Amino acid sequence: MTKKKKIEPLTGEALLKKVKELDTLSKEEKAKACGYYTQTKSGVERVNMMKFLNALIDAEGIELDGKQNGNGRGGRSASYRISVQSNGNLLIGSAYTKQMDLQPGDEFEISLGRKHIHLRQIDLQDQEAAS
């Protein structure tokens, strides 16, 4: 019995691309083609659908468990409402910046409407064009 070399399971964009390429195959065949299977000592291949489906969910960026901050404890969740503070400031909390994966130094353009504020993130291309 020859032992077949197992491929490393695909993740992220590579997984999504491969699944789209294999659109005519069954989900089990797609999982196997993407490396989500094991081979028993007797040579039987077993498809690991749970790992495959979880990898697809992760690749799509869907968060089923709810986000936690890095120390393992659940922080405050975003309520999508803020109030003006007594000093007139609006504070956008860390729950929002973490959810948007913002880093210190990220810049925004502010535009004001009658009773609303729009923030547009300024990326490197915008900054270079303005120079």
UniProtKB/TrEMBL annotation:
Keyword annotations from UniProtKB, A to Z: DNA-binding
UniProt KW Isomerase keyword: no
Boundaries of every SpoVT-AbrB domain copy: 79-124
InterPro entries (alphabetical): AbrB-like, SpoVT-AbrB_dom
Taxonomy, superkingdom: Bacteria
Pfam family, one: AbrB-like
Name used for this protein in its record: AbrB family transcriptional regulator
Originating species: Trichocoleus desertorum GB2-A4
